[in-house]
Amino acid sequence: MVHDGAMDAVNIDGVRKLTTNDALQSLKLNVDIKNSNKILTQLISNEENFIRERICFGKFIDEKLVSRGAIMSIAGNYASVGAFYTIETERKKGYASDIIKATIMEASRHSKNACLFVRNNNSNAINLYKKLGFICTGHAWFHDIGTGLSP
Fold this sequence. Notes:
4 helices
């Protein structure tokens, strides 16, 4: 899906760029942390690197991170956006929309278009992306390299 990047820069309440200080909260969004300290330390380090290497945004409610997303890469006229996730108890409240809007606004500063990839069976995400101005441009080729996941 592609977005043309035409969106006014607005301040979105509760949304800000993530820093490495947010790594633990970001990690807790979609990982059940019940691991040893060694594993936890590695997971936090991975999340810090993810945040450090990308432009990431988070939606905070009462200082708790509830939703996040990122610009994954920028190449020519396209910024690939993704890693959108909202904790299950906070879904259907517009938080993902806020994160996607912030990500698109930032992407428009670096490129002419924002694009993303979504599994074809993720109808909730597809509907949200369409509502926010993304259009489906076709299908990507996919090869499972041992994950057991399908597009």
